């Protein structure tokens, strides 16, 4: 079995959708389908149950998924150890500043266990750059949130989190069990600086043009609400701090946690980082 074909199989098995897997692999669907068919012929059994309702792993496919992940991980580990022996094993990770995601320490611990001799450099950025320096070539991989312009990048979703409206605790709307964006239409929202990725700005403004103070950091967002009664969005499970509260927004899609890297980058450390991140953010 070729490692590349096993990589194709893992993508389909994780996405359970040939179209999404093809997009993730930056290829068209027909050659991906042919590769999986050849693999099934080689194995001598069906790996997927295909139906009008979707794709599901067969028992044989489930066994192969575990083995394929282990083989791909082992191959990447071999490449990383060779790089470490040559003194070139390092990865730079971009993250949004003020991040308190509990999955991040799990990821750091798991990556350190797997790659104890790899130097990890972390670069934090403010809210004006959702790619955390990736677009500028300052980092190898970004651990961030979508949406943003994905042109030239590969993006893997790790988790999605519900969001809510960040309000002052004495705001009349703070007593509501839930809100809709229409309830906030006449309010001032905090904004990101001019030139910020439009998709990113639009999402955090609830899909509409807004007016309000410009902020660059999470703490600045909170202060704008606390001092001026400005509103904005934040993660529903984050502690907003004293004097503030978060009310669920019923008609906003969740915020996606993603890993992103340059399209075509074959650095095995990036692949290993993303696989470990996917496991850490599932737990």
Explain how this protein is built.
- The model has no long low-confidence stretch (mean pLDDT 90).
- Helix 5 links the parallel strand 3 (90-96) and strand 4 (119-125).
- A five-stranded mixed sheet has the order 4-3-5-10-6, covered by helices on one side.
- The chain has helices at 3-15, 18-25, 29-43, 59-85, 103-114, 198-204, 218-228, 268-282, and strands at residues 48-51, 54-57, 90-96, 119-125, 141-145, 153-161, 163-168, 232-235, 244-248, 255-262.
- The radius of gyration is 22 Å and the shape is globular.
- It is α+β, with helices and mostly antiparallel strands.
- Helix 1 crosses helix 3 (29-43) and helix 4 packs across helix 8 (268-282).
- It starts with a helix and ends with a helix.
- The chain has eight helices and ten strands.
Chain-wise SSE layout:
Layout lengths: L2 H13 L2 H8 L3 H15 L4 E4 L2 E4 L1 H27 L4 E7 L6 H12 L4 E7 L15 E5 L7 E9 L1 E6 L29 H7 L13 H11 L3 E4 L8 E5 L6 E8 L5 H15 L1
Parallel strand pairs: 3-4, 3-5
Antiparallel strand pairs: 1-2, 5-10, 6-10, 7-8, 7-9
Helix pairs in contact: 1-2, 1-3, 1-4, 4-8, 5-8
Helix-strand string:
HHHEEHEHEEEEHHEEEH
* Secondary-structure content class: alpha+beta
Strand order of the largest sheet: 4-3-5-10-6
What is the rounded Rg? 22 Å
Mean pLDDT: 90
* Apparent shape: globular
Instruction: Determine the strand fraction and express it as a percent band.
Output: 15-25%
Q: What helical percentage do the residues reach?
A: 25-40%
Low-confidence stretches: none
Helix count, DSSP H or I runs of 4 or more residues:
8
Terminal Cα separation, in Å? 30 Å
How many beta strands in the DSSP annotation?
A: 10
Largest sheet: 5 strands, mixed
């Amino acid at each position: 079995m070729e490692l590349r074909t096993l990589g194709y199989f893992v993508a389909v098995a994780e996405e359970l959708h040939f179209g999404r897997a093809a997009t993730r692999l930056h290829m068209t669907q027909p050659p991906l389908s042919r590769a999986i068919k050849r693999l099934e012929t080689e194995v001598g059994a069906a790996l997927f149950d295909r139906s009008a309702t979707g794709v599901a792993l067969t028992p044989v496919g489930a066994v192969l998924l575990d083995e394929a992940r282990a083989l791909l991980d082992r191959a990447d580990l071999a490449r990383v150890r060779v790089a470490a022996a040559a003194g070139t094993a390092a990865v730079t990770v971009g993250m949004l500043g003020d991040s308190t995601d509990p999955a991040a320490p799990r990821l750091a611990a798991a990556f350190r266990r797997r790659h104890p001799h790899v130097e990890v450099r972390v670069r934090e950025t403010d809210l004006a750059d959702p790619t955390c320096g990736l677009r500028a070539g300052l980092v190898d991989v970004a651990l961030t949130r979508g949406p943003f312009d994905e042109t030239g990048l590969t993006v893997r979703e790790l988790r999605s989190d519900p969001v809510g409206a960040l309000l002052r605790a004495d705001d009349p709307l703070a007593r509501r069990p839930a809100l809709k964006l229409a309830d906030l239409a006449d309010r001032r929202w905090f904004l990101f600086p001019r030139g910020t990725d439009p998709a990113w700005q639009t999402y955090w403004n609830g899909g509409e043009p807004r007016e309000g103070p410009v902020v660059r950091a999470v703490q600045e967002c909170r202060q704008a609400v606390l001092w001026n009664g400005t509103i904005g969005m934040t993660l529903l499970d984050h502690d907003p701090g004293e004097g503030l509260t978060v009310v669920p927004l019923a008609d906003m899609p969740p915020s996606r946690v993603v890993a992103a890297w340059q399209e075509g980058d074959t650095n095995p450390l990036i692949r290993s980082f993303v696989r470990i991140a996917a496991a850490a953010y599932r737990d």
